[in-house]
Amino acid sequence: MKKYLIGIPLVMALLFATNCKNNSTAAPAEEVDGDTIILDADQYVRFETTKGNFTIKLYRETPLHRHNMVRLARKGYYDDQLFFGIQKNYKIQCGDVKSKNAKPGQEIGIDDDTEENRIESEINPWKFYHKRGAVGQASTKQFNYSTSQQFYIITGKKVNSSTLPAQEKVINKRYRQAVKDSLTQPYAKDILTWQKYDEKKKISKLNDQLNDQADAIMKTRRQFTYSQEQIKEYTTVGGAHTLDGLYTVFGEITEGMDVVEAISQLPATGKNGRPNPDVKIIRAYVIEENP
Questions:
Q1: Concatenated DSSP letters for 109-138?
Q2: Is 22 exposed, middle or buried (0-12, 13-18, 19+ CB in 10 A)?
Q3: Strand (E) positions, 157-208?
Q4: How far is CA 39 from the centre of its chain?
Q5: Band of pLDDT at residue 36, cut at 50, 70 and 90
Q6: What sign has the CA pseudo-torsion 179, 113, 152, 79?
Q7: How far apart are CA 239 and CA 128, in angstroms?
Q8: Dist. CA 280–CA 291, nearest whole Å
Q9: How many CA atoms lie within 13 A of 106 on its CB side?
Q10: Backbone phi, then psi, for 178, in 5-degree steps?
């Protein structure tokens, strides 16, 4: 994915009220801007490519990203796009609409970080992590947001369990920063005024107070540590744990992982790793009934 690091992780709990009974045949939905949003259900999108087909399960718990991919697939956004970023034992990536009909050797994989192309992050490393087959969304330069267009699929490799604690520290550091940022927000105007008049002592005193408050809050909250299931997954199957806590994982491959692997093994050219030969998405469509 684009090498943008978001400033803090955002563990979102989006609560959607539903009246769905266990024996219901259809998940509840609502109309938003003329588009149907399924409120609480896993959804599936199938990608047909020139290298073969794969299916993505989109998690119900990440509704913003789930609906975004469903919406784009229904509009034919992915059709005729080229994969623009591949790395062996790591990931494949696509989502550049301008890659359609790109000339041989043309650099693809544009920066699509514009305000209208952003989604609020739904990062939750406790539950959704970068195991092999995980599907995630590239982030923007604005922390707490994903690009609405570029997504990636993890191939990854097995790691030693001794490498995981370092990422736990990274995630908890960003979690703490999120807490401090929330405490800082009410003082934004004061800080700007103090900066204008170079009142460094006031800024330093406030910073110390906010650090103390953030530390106190963190002591009352659960720190992130990898579960035994996650450790087993990373050490016996593989993945890309260094992305945990930085990007939103919103789905996983349920069919066609061999196709994803085959794409990732192709020779890569250019800055972003365009496959050679090109791999095109013929079409992407929503599977209305669970496969």
A1: ------GGGEEE----TTT---BTTEEEEE
A2: exposed
A3: none
A4: 19
A5: low
A6: positive
A7: 12
A8: 23
A9: 14
A10: -60, -40
Separation CA 92–CA 151 (nearest Å): 9
Q: What distance in Å separates the CA atoms of residue 251 and residue 233, rounded to the nearest whole number?
A: 16
Task: Write the CB contacts of 9 (distance below 8 Å, at least 6 apart in sequence).
Answer: 121, 123, 125, 171, 174, 175, 178, 245, 246
Q: Yes or no: say if 37 and 30 are a contact pair by the CB < 8 Å rule.
A: yes
Residue with tokens 């009974």: 21
Please give the model's pTM, rounded to 2 decimal places: 0.84
- DSSP symbol at 239: B
Tokens representing 282 are 């013929």
Sign, CA dihedral 223-207-210-139, equals: negative
Element (H, E) at 172: helix 164-184
What would the two tokens of residue 273 be?
A: 């790793």
End-to-end CA distance of the chain: 28
pLDDT digits (tens, 9 = 90+) for 234-263: 999 999 999 999 999 999 999 999 999 999
Instruction: List CB contacts of 154: < 8 A, sequence separation 6 or more.
Output: 90, 91, 130, 131, 132, 133, 134, 135, 136, 239, 240, 243
